[in-house]
Amino acid sequence: MTRLVRFLRCAVLDQVERIRRRPRRRKFYRGPVRSKKYKAWIRTLPSAVSGRMGCEAAHVGHDGGMRQKASDTTCVPLTPAEHREYHQIGRKDFEKKYGIDLDLVAEALFQTWCSLQAARRARKGKVL
Q: Which end of the chain is more exposed for a tag (fewer CB within 10 A), N or C?
C-alpha cells in the first residue's frame, strides 16, 4: 500500500467519523442567574442607603445555595463602606439600622431593569 492510498483512507475515514458523531450538547448551567450587564448597571446607580455615587453591586439575596453567591438579580447598590458594614454586622442588623428592606429594593431595581430592557428592544425593533 502506498503512502497516498493510506493517506486517502485515513482522510476519508476521518470525514465519515466526523459526520457520524453527534454534536456536543451544551452543559446545562445550574446555579444562580449571572448577568454582567445588570451588575454594571447597578454600579451606575446611587447607594440605596445614603444616595452617594461610586457604588458596588452587593448580593443580598438568599438563593445562593451552598457556598455560592446569590443571584445577580438580587444586587443592590451600596458604597464600599456600606458593603463592608453589611457583611460585618449582618443583614438583619443592617436593615434595622438603616430602616431599609433590601429584598424590596432588589426587586424594584430588577423590575426597573426589565422594563428598561423591554423598552430598548422595542426601540430596536421599530422601523423608521
A: C
The domain total for the chain is 1
In contact, 58 and 76? CB cutoff 8 Å? yes
- pTM of this structure: 0.71
Q: What is the Cα–Cα distance from 58 to 76, expressed in whole angstroms?
A: 5
Q: Is the pLDDT of residue 128 over 50?
A: no
Alpha carbons 87 and 53: distance in angstroms, whole number: 20
Average pLDDT, rounded, for the chain: 85
Specify if 2 maps to a domain: no
* Three-class SS state of 21: coil
13 assigned to some structural domain: no
